[in-house]
Design a protein that fits this description.
Layout lengths: L8 H20 L14 E4 L9 H4 L2 E9 L4 E7 L7 E6 L10 E4 L5 E7 L2 E11 L12 E7 L1
Amino acid sequence: MKTRIHITPILWTALLVILTGSSAIAQQSAIHQRLLLHVPELNALSVPARLLPLDQSEAKEAAAKLLWTSNGSEKKITVAKQTPHPAGVRITVRDVDHHASEGRSVELTGETDIDLLYGLQRSAGACVIEFSLLSAFPASAPPVLILYTVTNS
């Protein structure tokens, strides 16, 4: 035989008052805590794989989108030829969706780092980079390997 328990509305109200009252008391006695988070610096670049390395046929009139992300302050993107190569390369920046270095053009003739974009402040952005050769590649020359780096300004 089953026994049914009938709870009256008055009993429900009393139970609700007891439960909410103990919750309010528990909230008043809560301990305040301070949480310190360490967020490591993140710097990332994305260049289309077809431009790594840059060969003679692509360098004549190549253009690609360069994407970056940085949560650091006062950053810049530098470029350098990674290997000795007889041909120089001009890189022009356009369509920058950040205030940094619009229309800048740099010439890579040696293996020295050259600032391509600067003034990056905790941002993610993109630009179009265009390549042109300063001189013709010798037929036997290897492709040009260009190194892109995010570094401090």
